[in-house]
Every structure is written in structure tokens, then in C-alpha cells.
Amino acid sequence: MEDIVVLHYPSVRRSNWWLLCEAARSCGIRLATWEPHRLQVHCMDGEISGCYDGKPVRPGVVLHRTVAAFQGIVAPALKLWASEGTVVLNEPDAAYRSRDKLLTYLALHRAQVPIVHTIAFVEPSEEAMQPLADHRGVILKPAHGVRGEGIRAFGSAGELLTAWEGGCGQRSPLSLAREHYVAQPLVGGGGRDLRAFVVSGACVALMQRQAASGEVRANLALGATPTRLSLDHPAASTAVAALEACRLDYGGVDLIEDDDGTVRVLEVDAWAGFAGISAATGEDVAGAILQLAMTRRLGDRLGGRLGGRLGGTAT
């Protein structure tokens, strides 16, 4: 029995961890928790080691989840281990890119995956917001926001500008923690979207979310009501294309259907929670993730054995 290392904090969104543990028990897999702040990378002449609590380690399989705040140490450690043969689901650079909405839209655009009309900025202006001037309803999002945090809706682009001038989103131009934002039309008046979860090139769960009364954000944590959707819904294939464009092994995709019936991507998240969509759809998302991890590990082992045999018989 081999451990899968989960790089995370179990107390953060613990329902996802419980589902992973349940799926692991049913599959005979052991999970080991490693906390991100306890990683080190030891660099010296002739050797670089990834360490945990000061001890050099080389895990067989790593899943990373609640690591967004530790990019500077997590990404190098994961890439080092991957170069040494560790199976790392969701390549770290791709995972961190997915947390930035603008970088996500650029990747989706290159892959010709439908996206919502978006204007990205640090400071909005009347000229910059002109393309959204005719839309009834505009939504403002921090580019790195999650779970609906920091999102605000306005009746028009003009209202957004007025609110910004009144202090909404502003920070000192010299702030080192400066955030950029995206503004989009409020498709359908807001309050309804789709959430998909994709694992290994297949949509394994799909639901519609209806926001609570008076709310434009359709997050389950904010009281939205989920409805299971069939996996043959057009959103499923769009979600798969989005994950492929972002070069992720698994993750969540938020989508919306516009007035013309086109399904467009709102967001891709390598670290999306799956407890809500699992409960709403009855699908074993955690099991699918673990199955992918072990399939990759088995494939690497078989590939290594085959390579060794071929190398040993070559003349």
C-alpha cells in the first residue's frame, strides 16, 4: 500500500478532505497530510533536495490543494520532485495560473474556448470601460478572488466607475499587494451559473447553481441551490476543453449560458472544492481524483520497468 501525500491544511474546507479520506479507505490507499509551510528546498553544490520538516523526502504521489499562499516554496518543491519521478497532479505553474482570471482567459482564448466579454485593469477609466457601456448590469471581480469573495454587481459601467472613485477596490499605487480586476457584463442578470468538475479529460460531475434571492453570486457557500445536470449537457464538453486549455489534470470550471445559448467559461480553478458538487450530483469526485493519481503512478512504474528491460537488452 502506497501513500499519497496531500499538501494542504485539513482544517481548511475540511469536507473535501473527508471525502478524500473516505474514497482512499474504499480503495485501500493511505493519505498523508503535509502542511505547506513545513516544506523546505535545500540547495548546495551537487545536490538540491526537497525537504519536509528539514528531512529530504521524495514522495511517490502528491496532490496539492490549499497552497495558494505558498507559491514561492511550493512550486519549486513540486517541480523538483516531479523531475525526480514524483507524480504531481496539476503541474504547479498551470495550477497557479488558473487562480488568475486574466491568465485563464488568455489561455482559453488561445484554445478558442468561449469566454465572457472581459475587461481587465488595475484602475478603470471611462475610456477603458466603454465596451461595456451599453450593458445593463456589470460585475466586478478581483482577479485572484475565490468563492465569490470581493465580487460586486453594478447597474452599469458608469455606476462601477462612480463606486470606484468612492473607494471601491482602490489601494495605493505603490502597494506591493496591488490586485488587478476584471469587469464583465452581468449575463442574464446574474444569479445563475453552472459548475463542472473535470478529471483526466472527462467531466465527472455537473450542476446548475441558483443564487439565493437578491444575490448575484451563485456560490453554494452563499446559499445557492444546486440542481444536478446530465453529463451530456453542452457545458460538459466546454468544461473539458477549458481544463485542457489550462493544462490541468483536474479542477472545477464555472460556466454560464448566454442569451444565445452559448456556454461560456467564467472561471477555472485547479484547487476547486468538490464536496458541494459531490453532494448535489451523487458523483464520487474524490474517488476519480485518487484513481487518476494511482493510474499515473502505475503507468510511471510500468514505463520505468519497460525502459529498464529495453535498456538491458539493447546491443
Concise account of the structure shown:
The protein is an alpha+beta fold.
Please provide a written account of the structure.
With 315 residues, the protein is α+β, with helices and mostly antiparallel strands. It folds into 2 domains: 3-88 and 286-313, Rossmann fold (3-Layer(aba) Sandwich), CATH 3.40.50; 97-281, 2-Layer Sandwich (D-amino Acid Aminotransferase, Chain A, domain 1), CATH 3.30.470. The protein is built from 8 helices and 16 strands. The chain has helices at 14-27, 71-83, 92-98, 101-110, 157-165, 234-245, 275-281, 285-313; strands spanning 3-7, 30-34, 39-44, 47-52, 55-56, 61-64, 87-88, 119-121, 138-142, 152-154, 181-185, 192-199, 202-210, 225-228, 250-257, 263-269. The chain has a 5-stranded antiparallel β-sheet. The relative contact order is 0.14.
Rough outline: globular
As for the number of domains, it is 2
CATH A-level architecture of the largest domain: 2-Layer Sandwich
Major β-sheet annotation: 5 strands, antiparallel
Sum up the structure in keywords.
315 residues, alpha+beta, Rossmann fold, D-amino Acid Aminotransferase, Chain A, domain 1, 2 domains, five-stranded antiparallel β-sheet, four-stranded parallel β-sheet, 16 strands, 32% helix
Protein topology:
Blueprint: E1 3-7, H1 14-27, E2 30-34, E3 39-44, E4 47-52, E5 55-56, E6 61-64, H2 71-83, E7 87-88, H3 92-98, H4 101-110, E8 119-121, E9 138-142, E10 152-154, H5 157-165, E11 181-185, E12 192-199, E13 202-210, E14 225-228, H6 234-245, E15 250-257, E16 263-269, H7 275-281, H8 285-313
Parallel strand pairs: 1-2, 1-6, 6-7
Antiparallel strand pairs: 3-4, 4-5, 8-11, 9-10, 9-11, 12-13, 12-15, 13-14, 15-16
